[in-house]
């Protein structure tokens, strides 16, 4: 298993003998190996405006059999850096080194991430995502692990606005049973972070095969999956190597939901009012004046 120090030393030792294009790739990998870990050769080539053959030659020039081996090394380095225990340990060490109150430190961290988000998400990409959701007959929401929180929230709030929503939150092959219901005029809103899970890849691939449009909310997977989604929203949650915040993706999701409501104010308000009437009628609203007994009379 190659360590990060050994990998960086490898790049630095071979740097003088690389072509200018290869040196650009090497410089990028020195600081961004975690971002590049899941990029296919075509995406790497596109990033630097070079051919795939140049990327393959670069991998060989720094001592690997080819790009697949280089990518496996990058992914292993990524996993070493991004495992949950390591991320938490780094964040706790950072917090201990700051004498201010913990609430102040965490609050300022979240504000910093949100400020970066305002510069990282392009308004055109956000508007495209809203358009996809508005034109869909139904919205399928996908999320696993921490991202399931986002999928569940999207389902609850969009349903309240009268949008037909279905969940894609099962793992393994069970997600395929839910995916079978997807049709061309539906849309997929998917959230995935750090790793392109087989389930996420399957959802995006199947949607594309049907001609179904997709919105991807992600952090490090934007480059790797940008050709598989119609709109990619960059929800960076802080450095890969540290504890991750859900504030940024939650904020982007809230903005999407409110944008849908603003585009359909009458439908959204009518749907919310119907829900409130049902809650009161069946005694399931603490603010309602009628109970289940009165509802049956």
Describe it.
The chain is α/β, with parallel strands linked by helices and 297 residues long. It has three domains: 4-82, Winged helix-like DNA-binding domain superfamily/Winged helix DNA-binding domain (Arc Repressor Mutant, subunit A, Orthogonal Bundle); 112-263, 3-Layer(aba) Sandwich (Rossmann fold); 272-297, no CATH class. Helices cover 62% and strands 8% of the residues. The chain contains 15 helices and five strands. It has helices at 4-14, 20-36, 41-48, 52-61, 67-82, 84-96, 102-120, 123-135, 147-160, 174-179, 198-210, 222-225, 247-263, 265-281, 292-296, and strands at 139-142, 165-168, 187-192, 213-218, 231-234. Strands 2-1-3-4-5 form a five-stranded parallel beta sheet, with helices on both faces. α11 links the parallel β3 and β4 (213-218). The longest helix has 19 residues, at 102-120. It is globular, with a radius of gyration of 23 Å.
Radius of gyration: 23 Å
Write down the secondary-structure element order.
Answer: HHHHHHHHEHEHEHEHEHHH
The number of helical elements comes to 15
State the separation between the terminal residues, measured CA to CA. 72 Å
Percent range for helical residues? 55-70%
- Unreliable segments (pLDDT under 50, ≥5 consecutive)? 288-297
Morphology call: globular
> What do we call the CATH homologous superfamily of the largest domain?
Glucose-6-phosphate isomerase like protein, domain 1
> What does the largest sheet look like?
5 strands, parallel
Strand elements, count: 5
Instruction: Return the structural class.
Output: alpha/beta
As for the number of domains, it is 3
Beta fraction of the residues?
5-15%
Mean pLDDT figure: 84
- Widest beta sheet: strand line-up: 2-1-3-4-5
CATH-defined architecture of the largest domain: 3-Layer(aba) Sandwich
Task: Please report the first level of CATH classification, the CATH class of the largest domain.
Answer: Alpha Beta
CATH fold type of the largest domain: Rossmann fold
């Amino acid at each position: 298993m190659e360590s990060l120090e050994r990998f960086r030393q490898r790049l630095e030792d071979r740097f003088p003998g690389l072509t200018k294009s290869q040196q650009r790739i090497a410089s990028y990998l020195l600081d961004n190996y975690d971002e590049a870990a899941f990029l296919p050769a075509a995406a790497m080539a596109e990033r630097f405006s070079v051919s795939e053959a140049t990327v393959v030659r670069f991998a060989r020039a720094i001592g690997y059999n080819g790009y697949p081996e280089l990518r496996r090394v990058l992914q292993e380095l990524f996993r070493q850096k991004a495992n949950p225990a390591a991320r938490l340990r780094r964040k706790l060490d950072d917090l201990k080194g700051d004498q201010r109150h913990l609430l102040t430190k965490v609050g300022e961290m979240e504000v910093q991430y949100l400020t970066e988000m305002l510069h990282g998400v392009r308004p055109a990409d956000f508007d495209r995502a809203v358009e996809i959701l508005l034109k869909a007959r139904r919205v399928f929401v996908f999320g696993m692990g921490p991202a399931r929180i986002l999928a569940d929230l999207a389902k609850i709030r969009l349903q309240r606005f009268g949008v037909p929503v279905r969940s894609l939150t099962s793992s393994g092959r069970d997600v395929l049973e839910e995916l079978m219901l997807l049709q061309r005029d539906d849309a997929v809103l998917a959230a995935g972070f750090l790793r392109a899970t087989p389930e996420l890849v399957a959802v995006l691939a199947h949607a594309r095969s049907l001609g179904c449009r997709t919105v991807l909310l992600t952090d490090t997977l934007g480059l790797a999956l940008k050709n598989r989604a119609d709109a990619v929203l960059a929800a960076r949650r802080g450095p890969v190597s540290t504890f991750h915040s859900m504030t940024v993706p939650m904020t982007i999701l809230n903005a999407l939901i409110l944008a849908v409501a603003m585009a359909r104010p009458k439908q959204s308000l009518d749907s919310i009012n119907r829900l409130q009437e049902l809650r009161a009628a069946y005694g399931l609203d603490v603010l309602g004046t009628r109970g289940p007994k009165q509802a049956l009379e």
